[in-house]
């Protein structure tokens, strides 16, 4: 029985080095104050995106893509990664590897839950060593996935209004599942959490709240993102509301869920691998 695989990456995430994140520069940096900037972080390390193009000495025009601050001396060590929603646990390590897939089993009662399982490996995925003993079928029997969706998040702050955009592309896969049309069967949902506490990290107390953003783009599935970058959230004013030495308190959390609602054997076998990329645009 072949497994399913979905791989996510973020275009906005680059390798960084330096000291632990501190927000005081967000409150005092001239270019961030004068032209506006966006911060994306995972609670440990962060990247900066400017509305000022240092290469040309010009402001990024409305609708233009904001520019990564590659010389940012304040970035934390390592890469910014999406985290499992509600935690600060890096989310990539839970993705199936090349010879693994989402756990599949047999539902014998029609409730969508696995009743007969081939057994997951130590990482919780299906691999070539899995198998099922002989079993009977009736009108209620169906294939069922143990967990076909992933919940991920990253944190945002800014000194400007801006658009968060997303795009998707098919990566190298195999079999019948490796088809661009399958992307329209992968749901994509997203939301903003204005304040909370993730693994002891409080966020949002010095960030904007109430009516500072709206969802745009009419995106329901990953296929809606396959034609290029689509604005999905419009931030209508700066996220940062007050000064703080603590960047998370000036941040909100962007949450998203992606994956199949269900899997049916008629969809075929193989790997479906795709990337969802996020970018920032001047509003």
Q: What attributes characterize this protein structure?
A:
disordered N terminus; 2 helices; mainly beta; 7-stranded antiparallel β-sheet; 283 residues; 21 strands; 4-stranded antiparallel β-sheet
Short description, anyone?
With about 280 residues, the protein is mainly beta.
Write the layout of secondary structure elements.
Blueprint: E1 15-16, H1 24-28, H2 30-35, E2 37-41, E3 46-50, E4 52-53, E5 58-59, E6 67-68, E7 78-79, E8 83-84, E9 104-107, E10 142-145, E11 149-158, E12 162-170, E13 174-175, E14 186-193, E15 196-198, E16 201-203, E17 213-215, E18 230-235, E19 252-260, E20 270-271, E21 274-282
Antiparallel strand pairs: 1-7, 2-3, 2-11, 3-6, 4-5, 8-11, 9-10, 11-19, 12-18, 12-21, 13-20, 14-19, 15-16, 17-18
Q: Mind explaining what this structure looks like?
A:
With 283 residues, this protein is mainly beta. It has 2 helices and 21 strands. The protein starts with 14 loop residues before the first strand and ends with a strand. 36% of the residues are buried.
């Amino acid at each position: 029985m072949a497994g399913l695989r979905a791989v996510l990456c973020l275009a906005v995430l680059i390798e960084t080095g330096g000291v632990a994140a501190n927000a005081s520069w967000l409150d005092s940096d001239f270019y961030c104050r004068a032209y506006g900037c966006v911060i994306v972080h995972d609670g440990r390390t962060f990247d900066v995106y400017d509305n000022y193009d240092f290469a040309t000495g010009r402001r990024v025009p409305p609708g233009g893509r904001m520019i990564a601050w590659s010389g940012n001396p304040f970035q934390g060590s390592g890469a910014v990664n999406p985290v499992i929603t509600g935690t600060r646990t890096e989310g990539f390590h839970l993705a199936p590897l090349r010879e693994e897939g989402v756990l599949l089993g047999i539902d014998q009662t029609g409730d969508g839950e696995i009743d007969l399982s081939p057994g997951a490996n130590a990482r919780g995925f299906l691999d070539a060593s899995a198998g099922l003993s002989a079993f009977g079928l009736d009108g209620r029997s169906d294939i069922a996935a143990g967990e076909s969706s992933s919940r991920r998040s990253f944190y945002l702050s800014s000194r400007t209004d801006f658009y968060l955009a997303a795009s998707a592309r098919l990566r190298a896969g195999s079999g019948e599942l490796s088809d661009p049309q399958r992307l329209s069967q992968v749901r994509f949902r997203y939301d903003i959490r204005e304040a909370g506490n993730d693994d002891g990290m409080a966020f949002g107390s010095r960030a904007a709240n109430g009516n500072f953003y709206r969802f745009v783009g009419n995106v329901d599935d990953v296929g809606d993102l396959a034609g290029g970058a689509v604005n999905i959230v419009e931030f209508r004013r700066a996220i940062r509301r007050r000064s703080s030495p603590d960047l998370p308190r000036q941040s909100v959390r962007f949450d998203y869920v992606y994956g199949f609602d269900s899997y049916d054997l008629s969809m075929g076998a193989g790997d479906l691998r795709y990337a969802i990329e996020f970018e920032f645009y001047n509003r």
